[in-house]
Specification:
By secondary structure, the chain is mainly α. It is built from two helices and three strands; from the N terminus they run H-H-E-E-E. It has a three-stranded antiparallel sheet with strand order 1-2-3, with helices on one face. It is elongated.
Length: 136
């Protein structure tokens, strides 16, 4: 005959598994906000870097043609005389949130142009990750 101890199966109880799941959930709730804030910060840095590349291309266009482009697509293709482009090596990218960059000529505050991204919400204004990124 088998004794009662040999019939018992080894393993974790439901209570032990629930405790482990709760502990993992608490750890994730502490780590996830820091991870996602770093991700948002890197998206803003990518947008700023892309806008700096636009700025260089826009300034080179102005040096060649004596005026600023009226739209960003002119950095890739134009019928203007003295156009010596393309001034960007690839098609004009969207911002890191999938929205087109906003380009205005003339810009605000007596600037020759304004280049901006509306941030993660894609709307003008906002704060933190939703704040606009502006190059003038």
């Amino acid at each position: 005959m088998k004794n009662k101890q040999s019939c018992r199966q080894s393993g974790f109880t439901m209570m032990e598994l629930l405790i482990v799941i709760v502990i993992l959930g608490l750890l994730m709730s502490l780590v996830a906000p820091k991870f996602f804030s770093k991700l948002s910060s890197s998206e803003r840095k990518i947008a700023a870097a892309q806008m700096a590349a636009f700025e260089t291309a826009i300034d080179t266009y102005r040096l060649d043609l004596g005026k600023y482009p009226t739209e960003l697509s002119q950095l890739r293709k134009s019928d203007e005389p003295r156009w010596d482009g393309p001034y960007l090596p690839k098609d004009i990218p969207l911002d890191p949130w999938g929205n087109p960059y906003i380009y205005k000529v003339p810009g605000t505050d007596n600037n020759p142009y304004e280049l901006k991204s509306y941030g993660s919400d894609g709307k003008e204004g906002g704060a933190d990750n939703n704040a606009d990124i502006i190059h003038q």
